[in-house]
Please model this.
Amino acid sequence: EEFNANSVDLERKSSELQKNYLKIVALLPNIRQAYLVDEEHEKEIEKLNSDINQLGNSQRGLNNYIHSGTKQPYSVLKSKLDDVSRDYENCHKGLQDFKAYIDLLRNSTEQAYSMVFLYYHHCKQSEAILRQIDIPNFTQQYMDRISECYSLLNEIDASLKIKPIDVTFINERAEQLKMIGNNLFDEVDTMNRECQLAESSVVYCNRDRCQQADVKQQLNILEHRFFEGEFKSVYEDATSIYHHSHVEEAKTNGRK
Model:
């Protein structure tokens, strides 16, 4: 009973798998027209075809033994059933792997389309921030990296317009773009915040420039460092100068 149930179930699953395989085969011309299928996966589909044929042979062999006019030993039938089960699992894995590859081609292409628009927008935002900071000698290093991002974006965009789409090439360029772009955008955003803080703190300290000669001298140095792009340390030092000068002022007023 158990053997018969297992045999019927496995035959049903094998038949369904072969139908799914034929659907994939029918789609292959369109897939190859849309995407460049690499050599490794072309070999996989060839192997899958061979494995599907082997599964069919195993299934027919099992059926011949089951329906044989001569009663077969259970051990022989069980061995044949195990052969079918093994071949089924092999084909099932191969088919799932190839379907996953097709999904990867589609998803990677869709992500690349979205990435072009998203990263172009981020590049434009970063350019605007750097122009606002307006320290060309310092910001040029960031502008060079933005140019590198634009170059990668152009390569990806051009590749998406060529059929079949070379997804492997696009993914390589996309990874480069992520590595360069994500770090760049974070750095520019951080630099922008530090620049604003540094500028505000120096402006605030400037109120004491005329009253305290030492503050004037220190602020001259800070302003020079500001235009060297040392925003974080300028902010910290300006804050320190302000607190120090006002503590001293409070002490002087207290003695009076």
The mean pLDDT is 89. The CA atoms of residues 98 and 153 lie 29 Å apart. The chain has seven helices and no strands. Helices lie at 2-34, 39-66, 74-133, 136-160, 167-205, 213-226, 231-255.
